[in-house]
Amino acid sequence: MALKIVCIILKIIEIVVLVAGTGLVGYFMKEFYDGRKPENDDRVNSYDLGHFGRFEFFLYTTCLGVIMVVLSLVALITGLLEKKGGTSAMVIVHALWTLQLLVSTALLAKVLATYEKEQDLLPIYVISEKKQSFCDNFDEANTNYQCSQFIGGVACGFIGTILFLVDTIVHAISWKRSPVW
Q1: Sign of the C-alpha dihedral computed for residues 116, 122, 125 and 127 taken in this order
Q2: Which long-range contacts (CB under 8 A, 24 or more apart) does 102-106 make?
Q3: How far apart are CA 141 and CA 164, in angstroms?
Q4: How far, in whole angstroms, is CA 75 from its chain's centroid?
Q5: Are the C-beta atoms of 108 and 54 separated by less than 8 Å?
């Protein structure tokens, strides 16, 4: 019973963290796109070129992760995870999703590291003559998208990965204790 309560609490925290990460990265991506979209339809759109692929992969992973956690929470509450079959399936699914979330967050963290690296910015982004990062540029330009939103989303992704790993371990312990099929 104590293991079941731990699982329920873990799943609620997972939902909160994943939704927060999705919201932060989604808002950053939307505002970044809106601030950079071409004035006319003749110019090529950066979204259509796939420049937001890592953002979309992260958003896909976190959104599907929330759905998966809600379904596993329902299965846990209704008792579907009390036998080895259900529990072993949950261990496998959570282990795979831990890896998926780690990969998508690491890819997004690479984008963040690039944004934070000081460099000579392209002429269209230059506000001053000194070397600066894109994040500093966003701050100086007073845009609706800030790297703090992006940092928060990446942090939520890594925290969510740790929570999924812990949830996988708790399900594995539960699997060892559950009755045969």
Answers
A1: positive
A2: 102/161, 104/54, 104/57, 104/58, 104/60, 104/61, 104/62, 104/157, 105/58, 105/61, 105/154, 105/157, 105/158, 105/160, 105/161
A3: 37
A4: 23
A5: yes
CA distance 14 to 2: 18
Domain boundaries, the chain: 1-27+55-114+151-177
Q: Please state, in angstroms and rounded to a whole number, the distance separating the CA atoms of residues 30 and 126.
A: 22
* pLDDT score, position 180: 64
Across 138-161, average pLDDT: 88
What is the rounded distance in angstroms from the CA atom of residue 160 to the CA atom of residue 177? Answer: 26
The least confident of 5-9, 31-35, 72-76 is 31-35
